[in-house]
Design brief:
single chain, 380 residues, Rossmann fold, globular
Length: 380
């Protein structure tokens, strides 16, 4: 069986790329297709595969501005001869065109946020330029229609959480199975905490990192932020000296940062939240917005989640105080036990189960012509 893995773009190593790594281990002979590819910014596991990038790749520096061209580029990827296609989707990756004999499974991290559930925020709150708002308004309707139509090219959807399962139904009216993303939980470890909190995130508006920067700058608590992105300059301007920006760091250093922090802060709504599982696997609790995937990972204080209902620096500050009141009662080994349900082995077992089973709904085709006319003639 020839297998093709489709990933929206390969320009860094975040949660989606870690899922792709696991798919590479499950299907060691699979080829990878993507819109944009920078081999210097991905892992050795991904670089070791045959990676086919679209014709847009030479302009990958401006990939965020090329969204209107991505459907055209995806439909030009040559997937002839592949028996199984697995698309890793939180952009437009599922929009590839495959032959009728291929089976297409979409592992969906989320329908495109900037077209669906977060569209009003992108249009009215997070886009500062009037020109960009106009362009978003003009192109988004066309892209939303294409995104909905391209969902019909998928034989089966798999959601990374119950949270995303609901979004898939709302956006595409398609059923899906839930398979939580894989986390190498055994590679994380606990160490007695030092006096700092940790935030690990891409620095984009919907992650609400600014809420944490404002909260910690006001209270003076030490905060380390790991990650990079377009919001870096604005966040740096708003931060006081107690907020430290670490940029992107190697995995071994990130594990050490997890192991030594007091808790991990997550101020934005996550589709699932691999960072949340990595924190629990390090024996560290979570202080985060009580929405989205976090409710499936650590829904209460017993499981390590100190959650607050509404976004904002004030709500985050209240959750921090609750955590500090109960900090000595937290059992790191129990948190690590909770993280074990999201292991790579379980992910591989569930994905192979989906590949080896029939789709949720199998279409029935009429193989023989009808035995009588569909319409009665007048003489009859």
């Amino acid at each position: 069986m020839r297998v093709a893995l489709i990933h929206y773009w390969l320009l860094g190593m975040r949660g989606g790329e870690k899922v792709l790594e696991s798919l590479c281990r499950i299907f060691p002979e699979a080829d990878i297709f993507t819109l944009f590819y920078d081999p210097d910014k991905v892992s050795a596991t991904i670089r070791s595969r045959r990676v086919h990038a679209s014709f847009l790749n030479p302009a990958r520096r401006y990939y965020r501005s090329l969204l209107p061209l991505m459907p055209f580029a995806l439909e030009h990827l040559d997937l002839r001869g592949y028996d199984l296609i697995i698309s890793s989707e939180s952009g437009p990756a599922k929009g590839v065109i495959a032959s009728a004999s291929s089976r297409h499974i979409c592992y969906c991290h989320s329908p495109m946020r900037y077209l669906w559930d977060l569209y009003p925020d992108y249009l009215h709150e997070w886009t500062r330029s009037r020109l960009k708002r106009t362009l978003i308004g003009v192109t988004s309707n066309y892209l939303r229609l294409w995104d909905y139509a391209s969902a019909s090219r998928v034989d089966q959807f798999t959601a990374n959480s119950r949270n995303v399962q609901k979004r898939i139904w709302r956006a595409y009216r398609r059923e899906s199975a839930v398979v939580h993303p894989p986390v190498s939980v055994r590679s994380f470890y606990y160490r007695p905490p030092l006096d700092y909190y940790l935030l690990v995130s891409e620095l984009v508006a919907y992650k609400r990192v600014m809420d944490a920067v404002l909260c910690f700058s006001r209270t003076g608590r030490p905060l380390r932020i790991v990650g990079d992105g377009p919001e870096f300059a604005a966040l740096r301007r708003a931060a006081k000296p107690n907020v430290e920006f670490c940029g992107r760091i190697p995995d071994c250093e990130l594990r050490e940062q997890y192991s030594r922090c007091r808790a991990v802060v997550q101020p934005g709504e996550e589709d699932f939240g691999i960072v949340s599982v990595e924190a629990l696997a390090s024996g560290k609790p979570l202080i985060g917005l009580g929405r989205g995937g976090l409710l499936e990972i650590a829904p209460d204080e017993e499981s390590g989640g100190f959650l607050y209902p509404d976004p904002g620096p004030e709500s985050l500050g209240s959750a921090l105080e609750r955590f500090e009141d109960r900090e000595t009662q937290i059992r790191p080994t129990h948190l690590q036990f909770c993280a074990a349900q999201f292991s790579e082995d379980l992910f591989a077992e569930k994905m192979l189960g989906i590949v080896n089973s029939p789709p949720l709904h199998t279409d029935r085709f009429i193989e023989d012509p009808p035995t009588r006319p569909l319409m009665m003639s007048r003489s009859a």
